[in-house]
Inverse folding.
């Protein structure tokens, strides 16, 4: 028996399942016909002996031995063998009982058995009918009876075949639905995990914020106090001139990262406001900086002035593009961020000299949960969410990428969007190729 992959409809194993389901019924039917044959030929002990012998051999052979053999070898081969054995036995019974009508009942009955959906089923059935008819007609069978039961067999078989196909089709659809359900469940878990992470980041940032405020104020006071001292020793003077200002600088950086993180990870509703676009681009750069440590970051930021929109969402998009660029670019590569005003629009370019993307990746890029990164590194949500955000702002996001050379994402945002035309994050998502 073939192993089926979990979640994938496998027509061979499906047909086997269907076959097994009717096996009990088939055995019972064969027993009834055999019993009728024995009763009909009671007194003709040769015929009765043949019926009993054939039944005793066929029933366990069909239900136990051949099933066991099919599991060990190939199903198609075993089915051919099953057909040959049944054919020979029916011919023997036919000759013994002078082609009694009850033996003919066996013929269509045999053909009702479901012998898989491989491409040899029909040739097997045809061979079966031809051989039985040839033997029957040459050993004195009634031609009209032979023709009638052969026709019943053909129609019976075609009906069973159709039903089998429908069964497999239905099973395939069920498998597909099950698979989709599993995927949705996985996505729900992932989203839940991400939103918990966001909440955690917000609370960690909040916790860091409190101690940082008194560290800032204490270092600042210390610096002011030392500055007021008239006669400082040389080492203390060095503290006043270099060490403490540098320390304050570091503290300010930590403070701005913490406040960016707090703002960025807050999950509450954000309305449309007028904001300083360049300041938000700098925020995104600060947040993404940790993922860009190994590359040279080039910034060409034109002051584009105020823009109307949801700044937190725009930062989210930029962080995602910058982090992706950093992850795709090896050490020593370049990530270049350019912003400029173009009429009533703002253009942002995030260009990297990284791995680039294959045509296949470009095709699926903006689809939710599409990722080429290993589990734990990528969720495949970044670009689909970014796409939704940019569309909701009335803008466009496009990508140009060449495998092995690098990638450039371009965003065009209206400075003042007409009211959000679209808020969905998916739809007909397509990357604009080179
Ligand atoms: P994630 O980063 O979690 O995989 P994204 O939606 O942000 O999800 O990105 C989807 C896929 O797009 C990534 O897995 C990667 O294959 C590809 N990708 C995105 N940005 C780049 C880039 N700058 N260079 C190469 N591939 C990229």
């Amino acid at each position: 028996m073939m192993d089926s992959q979990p979640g994938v409809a496998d027509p061979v194993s499906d047909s086997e399942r269907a076959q097994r389901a009717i096996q009990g019924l088939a055995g019972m039917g064969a027993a009834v016909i055999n019993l009728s044959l024995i009763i009909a030929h009671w007194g003709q002990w040769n015929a009765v002996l043949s019926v009993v012998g054939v039944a005793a051999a066929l029933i366990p052979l069909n239900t136990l031995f051949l099933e066991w053999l099919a599991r060990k070898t190939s199903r198609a081969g075993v089915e051919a063998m099953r057909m040959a054995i049944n054919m020979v036995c029916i011919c023997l019974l036919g000759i013994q009982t002078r082609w009694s009508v009850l033996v003919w009942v066996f013929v269509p009955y045999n053909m009702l058995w479901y012998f898989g959906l491989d491409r040899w089923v029909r040739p097997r059935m045809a061979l079966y009918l031809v051989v039985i008819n040839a033997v029957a007609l040459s050993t004195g069978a009634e031609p009209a009876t032979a023709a009638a039961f052969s026709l019943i067999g053909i129609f019976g078989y075609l009906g069973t075949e159709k039903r089998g196909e429908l069964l497999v089709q239905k099973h395939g659809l069920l498998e597909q639905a099950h698979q989709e359900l599993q995927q949705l469940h996985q996505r729900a878990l992932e989203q839940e995990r991400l939103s918990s992470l966001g909440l955690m980041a917000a609370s960690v940032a909040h916790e860091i914020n409190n101690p940082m405020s008194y560290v800032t104020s204490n270092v600042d006071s210390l610096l002011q106090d030392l500055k007021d001292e008239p006669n400082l020793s040389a080492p203390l003077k060095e503290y006043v001139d270099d060490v403490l200002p540098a320390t304050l600088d570091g503290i300010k950086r930590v403070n701005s990262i913490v406040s960016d993180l707090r703002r960025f990870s807050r999950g509450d509703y954000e309305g449309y406001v007028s904001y300083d676009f360049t300041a938000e681009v700098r925020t995104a750069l600060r947040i993404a900086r940790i993922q860009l440590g190994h590359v040279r970051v080039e910034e060409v930021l034109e002051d584009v002035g105020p823009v109307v929109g949801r700044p937190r969402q725009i930062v989210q998009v930029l962080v995602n593009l910058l982090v992706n660029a950093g992850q795709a670019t090896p050490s020593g590569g370049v990530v270049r961020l350019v912003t400029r005003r173009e009429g009533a629009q703002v253009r942002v370019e995030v260009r990297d000299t990284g791995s680039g993307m294959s045509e296949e990746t470009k095709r699926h890029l903006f689809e939710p949960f599409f990722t080429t990164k290993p589990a734990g590194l990528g969720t495949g949500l970044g670009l689909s969410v970014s796409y939704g955000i940019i569309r909701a702002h009335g803008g466009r996001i496009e990508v140009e990428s060449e495998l092995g050379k690098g990638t450039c994402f371009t965003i065009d945002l209206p400075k003042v969007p007409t009211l959000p035309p679209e808020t969905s994050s998916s739809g007909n998502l397509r990357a604009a190729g080179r």
In short: The longest strand covers residues 334-342. The longest helix spans residues 143-228.
